[in-house]
Write a structure and sequence with these properties.
By secondary structure, the chain is mainly α. It contains 16 helices and no strands. It has one domain.
Length: about 450
């Protein structure tokens, strides 16, 4: 649900939670979901995302030739408002992220659909409220003659509804239904639309950026809605919302902090380098996203598989077995990709978008972030088994290191490369800590099983 990865986030010390984790009998009449080979699911999503990313890269290059860094920086800076928006959902949609695959794994699809219906109503309500706030800001800018600022805020007001409904609700339902082929097609279609809509940018400059974002978001939302695998209407149900809040609030507490990590990084870029630097940093994020889609696709497939399996057997051992091989293979496979991209970056950028040549060193460092993010499924284990305390400890320590490194690197003046470098150090530590904590959970599970067997 940020960096291209979904926002993933209590434990045995809480007896109430222990009671809730005891597996309940599965409804006998509920059908079991059809299983496909994991590598086939990943290949569908990666293949579609690869085509989508190629189109987005082409669009990003063309956009860089059409607008100045300061103009792009202004548009991107206003767009940061949407990256802070998820706090309003209070964890209810994070609860759905966990509960949908969990209940489907247990064979209780009616329960999953009832929760989805309530969550859909919540997503639409919260998105609309946030849109009203952004509309008010845009109206204030318009009254002061700041037409570009007003257009940017009005655009983000509409995108707020798209953000909550499309990204936070609709796309989530595709993961639980394993319909990754259609999800990949939607990504490609939206990318094609974004590329074609660059004509608006060439014609209208900043206003073209706004219209392009609106139309591309509308296209993606329409396709996801037309092909949605869970066809339920929004229904306000306080009991279901209360349940999702109870499940999702701990996930939200730490998961939102992770999502805000990259937002904080972008905010610091804007603060210390201005709109010019923010425009340059948009190319850093583009370079990062060009590689990030691969580990993101793996996580999109692996996470619901783990949640379903945990709904069936409640064993951490199974989660590690499902996630370990895809993570390692992804990391190993990315090394040559990153190496080639690192080598090609300077000549390609200088030839295609020379106005952004100052971003080349930072773009290179941004390519390394996906290597650390290959191990993100380890963090998903803590959400599934409801041990957000371990996730939170790993995250706080890693973010503290990031802040310390960031402050040290900009002590004599900010350089664009300092931001992805500090982020890389923090994310690498986060991957190490999550892996260590997950292995610790497995050791505890084995010790408990041995003690039970001995008794």
């Amino acid at each position: 649900m940020g960096d291209g990865l979904e926002p993933i986030p209590d434990g045995p010390d809480n007896p109430e939670l222990e009671t809730e984790l005891v597996p309940e009998p599965k409804p006998a009449a509920a059908p079991r979901p059809t299983k496909r080979p994991l590598i086939r699911l990943v290949s569908h999503l990666v293949g579609g995302n690869m085509a989508s990313m190629a189109l987005r890269m082409a669009a990003g290059v063309l956009q860089g030739r059409l607008v100045a860094p300061a103009t792009l920086g202004l548009f991107t800076g206003i767009g940061l408002s949407l990256r802070y928006a998820p706090f309003l959902q209070l964890g209810i949609l994070d609860g759905l992220y966990r509960e949908l695959p969990y209940h489907i794994g247990r064979g209780d699809r009616p329960r999953a659909e009832a929760l989805a219906s309530a969550a859909q109503a919540w997503a639409l309500a919260v998105g609309s409220l946030y849109a009203l706030a952004l509309l008010a800001i845009g109206a204030w800018n318009l009254s002061h003659g700041q037409s570009w600022m007003a257009a940017g805020w009005f655009t983000n007001a509409v995108l707020a509804v798209v953000f909550y409904y499309k990204t936070y609700y609709l796309q989530l339902t595709y993961r639980t239904a394993h319909d990754f082929s259609r999800l990949a097609l939607v990504n490609v279609a939206e990318s094609v639309g974004s590329l074609l809509l660059l004509a608006l940018v060439a014609w209208l400059n900043f206003y073209g950026l706004c219209l392009r974002a609106l139309l591309a978001g509308a296209l993606g939302t329409a396709l996801l809605f037309a092909w949605r695998p869970i066809r339920v209407r929004p229904a306000w149900n306080f009991a279901h919302l209360k349940h999702l809040l109870k499940i999702g609030l701990p996930i939200f507490g730490v998961g939102q902090l992770y999502a805000w990590w990259s937002v904080l990084n972008s905010t610091l870029v804007l603060k210390f380098t201005g709109v010019e630097g923010m425009g340059l940093y948009a190319m850093v994020m583009m370079a990062n996203t060009a590689i990030e889609f691969i580990p993101s696709a793996v996580n999109q497939v692996v996470h619901p598989r783990m949640a379903e399996r945990y709904g069936q057997a409640h064993r951490v051992e199974d989660l590690l077995r499902i996630s370990w091989k895809p993570m390692v293979l992804t990391a190993v496979g990315l090394v040559p990709v990153v190496a080639v991209a690192w080598w090609l970056m300077p000549p390609v950028v200088r030839f295609l978008i020379p106005k952004y040549a100052a971003a080349i060193p930072a773009m290179r460092w941004g390519l390394l972030l996906p290597l650390a993010n290959c191990f993100y499924p380890m963090a998903g284990i803590f959400q599934i088994v409801r041990r957000q305390d371990l996730y939170g400890v790993a995250l706080v320590i890693s973010m503290a290191l990031y802040v310390a490194v960031q402050l040290w690197m900009i002590r004599d003046g900010a350089t664009l490369s300092a931001f992805p470098q500090a982020m890389l150090v923090g994310r690498a530590l986060f991957a190490v800590l999550c892996t260590a904590f997950a292995l610790g959970l497995r050791r505890r599970e084995r010790a408990t099983a041995s003690a039970g067997g001995g008794a």
